[in-house]
Predict the structure.
Amino acid sequence: MNLILLGAPGAGKGTQAEVICEALKIPTISTGNMLRAAVKNGTKSGLEAKGYMDSGKLVPDEVVIGILKDRIAEDDCKNGFILDGFPRTVPQAEALDSMGVTIDKVVEIYVPDEKIKQRLSGRRVCEGCGNSYHVDFKPTKVEGICDACGAKTVIRKDDEPATVESRLKIYHEQTAPLKGYYQAQGKLVTVEGQEEVKETSRLTLEAING
Ligand code: AMP
């Protein structure tokens, strides 16, 4: 099954991707994580992407499409995959179509902007493996230390309040039109993000299986 998770930054797509990955045994492809790894490793696409990412802007379509295309060609994607953070523009969705990729379902995780701002201010990510945490909703066992790999957890540069405002604006202008795009294909299902992560996960799995 090929799935897309759609939603504003901080809506909880990454967490739901982990749940689906576990349930369906298909890999999650997060273009954000791939880009952060590329920046860390100083690759050509990483160098191109860094400035855009730090200021909360979208990385140009051709850079992200290139990365995504190589990734879904890998062996572990044969039985399906979950796209987290891709596509983020209509041209990216069109690129997927023209690669001949069939998308089975697009799950939108909907959370109002005010809640998103509150959530992002508490988000922490691991410097080592990229795992995501939240000081209130998903704390690490030891403060500031990743449960999975023991590296330090930090605030992402693009989670600073001013950057969050601009990311939300970009989401509404450039990514939200994808809802109409996939609704027209009969693939869109919307899940309202709940206070309890477990409840959102239950609704997400129900939306996928339904
Ligand atoms: P994320 O972790 O998904 O919030 O992504 C972090 C940042 O990576 C975004 O703010 C963008 O700068 C960049 N990025 C990730 N995915 C995409 C995409 N599909 N198109 C353009 N930029 C992206």
The pocket of adenosine monophosphate is lined by residues 9, 31-32, 35, 52-53, 56-59, 64, 85-88, 92, 158, 167 (CB under 6 Å).
